[in-house]
Amino acid sequence: MAVTAHRINSRHLPGSYRTAISFTGFRLRKTHSKIGKHNGGQAISSPEERKPFGAYPQDGSEAFTFLRNILPGVGGLLYGAACTYDNTPDEDFIIDTPAGHDNTLLITGLSGHGFKFASVLGEIAAQFAQGIAPQFDLTPFSLSRFSR
Predict the structure, then answer these.
(1) pTM score, two decimals?
(2) Is residue 128, in this structure, part of any structural domain at all?
(3) What are the TM regions of this chain, as residue ranges (predicted)?
(4) What's the rounded Cα separation, in Å, for the pair 128 and 144?
(5) Burial class of residue 19, CB neighbours in 10 A (0-12, 13-18, 19+)
(6) Which residue of 24, 54, 89, 94 sits 20 to 30 Å from the alpha carbon of 100, by its own alpha carbon?
């Protein structure tokens, strides 16, 4: 993995640093940071297939290679966890009403990015619940895009 060495302090977190593998970081406390790897991971069909953190040799080691370059003197791993999130084939959201269920709004396939869009997704859902047309063009997020 090619990582450009940057000398930054943890106070610069949250941040997103592009490498061959994408990492995001959040400062939790003065001495703790949360680092996550976003690369698609291993595809699974059910939650039971998820393997625990540490099941793969690269779990942790990729993050530490990255961390040692941007946070000199980084300490040890306090906790590791494997996370799952739903993806769509094009890695974009689905915001649509399923056929035959006009009173149901489906918001899914957020691909690990939904939290960043919580305010606008909530606004869309609230407007839907009130019978108000969305202020945004939701065509790019339709279910039908997968059957074209």
Answers:
(1) 0.62
(2) yes
(3) none
(4) 19
(5) middle
(6) 89
Quick: pLDDT tens for 77-135. Answer: 777 888 777 888 888 899 999 999 999 999 998 877 788 899 999 999 999 999 999 98
The reply to whether 24 falls in a domain is yes
Whether 3 maps to a domain, the answer reads: no
Residue 52 DSSP one-character state = P
Question: Would you give the DSSP letter of residue 132?
Answer: P
The DSSP element (H or E) to which 73 belongs, if any, is none
Coil/strand/helix, residue 53 = coil
Expressed as residue numbers, the domain containing 63 is 10-70
Phi-psi category of residue 29: left, alpha or beta, with phi > 0 → left and psi -120 to 50 → alpha: beta
